[in-house]
Amino acid sequence: MSLDKLRKKIDQLDAQLVKLLNERVSVALEIGKTKKEQGGEIYVPSREKAVFERISELNKGGSLPDKSARAIYREIMSAALALESNLRICYLGPPATFTHQAARSKFGASVEYHPAGSIADVFAAVENGNADYGVVPIENSTEGAVTHTFDQFTGTTLKICAEIYLPISLCLMASVSGEKVSRICSKQEALGQCRHWLNANMSGIEFDAVNSTTLAAEMASKSDCAAIASHFAAELYGLDILAENIQDVSGNTTRFLVIGAQCSEPTGDDKTSIYFGTKHKAGALHDALGALQANGINMSKIESRPSGDKVWEYVFFVDFEGHADNPNVKKALKEMEDHCAVLTVLGSYPKAG
């Protein structure tokens, strides 16, 4: 075909796509109306997972990479969510942080985003109805647990309804060319994570620690300093990326949690998070965890935190495979209660993949 004919073919396909997208949104709006009438949640993580799996299956053998197909459908579903209920997402701010980026990767560009100054503020926004969902960091593959998030779960009725894994990629960015950079600004932790690269490539340039990577990007947009921040920050502040993936440790990933009023429905590939405190008797922790093993449940994480009630008393946070509605999980939790002073299911949700 000639170039002109190929472009006409594209125009015809675009007309069909736009028509079908509008039809899909109309059906989604009807579904949203029905869910509201039945008192259900607008955002349903189990359904989201099923849609993505179906799209991947339908896309097999096609020219479109699976990652691209999922990204397209993320935005299609984001537009539908925004039209259904004007969904509001609160996240640990300021804008353009990795938490903001994680939230966008989960909910897309069409819903409302509201930054909060602390993890406690994110929980409060969802509890008070000022946001429908919150996104908070829970652990990093190199720096470990985010203890402030764990501590919030002991005093809330909110549930974990989804998880997000975000690879952390740090970039050097500026509004001037590399030769004109006078100094490099970023959060102290980010500067530390890029120390070897900076020493090898930017020796002789002053480093300044600031409150956040976002603040550094904002400063770089107004001066001749460079910032170490995310791709998202470069996009938001119109900065040129001078170098990518400058962090010294590759594979650095942060896990985030989506918190809301309800758990997700079972998908067959789920994770459950609980916290518990044991009774004051010898072997209570061993016996409590033994209930998981006895019922064939794989524990993927355990974290301890001070209980806050008495000195040297602890509560334990555990992640394991399976959904709280699964028969073997129900049995295990019932057996654990015999050895626990307190046991709370924080949420069951689809495993991120």
UniProtKB/TrEMBL annotation:
The keyword Glycoprotein does not apply. InterPro entries: ACT-like_dom_sf, ACT_dom, Chor_mutase/pphenate_deHydtase, Chorismate_II_sf, CM_dom_sf, CM_II_prokaryot, G/b/e-P-prot_chorismate_mutase, Preph_deHydtase. Transmembrane segments: none annotated. It is found in: Cytoplasm. One of its GO terms (molecular function) is prephenate dehydratase activity. It catalyses: chorismate = prephenate; prephenate + H(+) = 3-phenylpyruvate + CO2 + H2O. Residues 273-350 form the ACT domain. Pathway: Metabolic intermediate biosynthesis; prephenate biosynthesis; prephenate from chorismate: step 1/1; Amino-acid biosynthesis; L-phenylalanine biosynthesis; phenylpyruvate from prephenate: step 1/1. The record marks T254 as: Essential for prephenate dehydratase activity. GO terms for biological process: chorismate metabolic process; L-phenylalanine biosynthetic process. Catalyzes the Claisen rearrangement of chorismate to prephenate and the decarboxylation/dehydration of prephenate to phenylpyruvate. This is Bifunctional chorismate mutase/prephenate dehydratase. It comes from Tichowtungia aerotolerans. The lineage of its organism: Bacteria, Pseudomonadati, Kiritimatiellota, Tichowtungiia, Tichowtungiales.
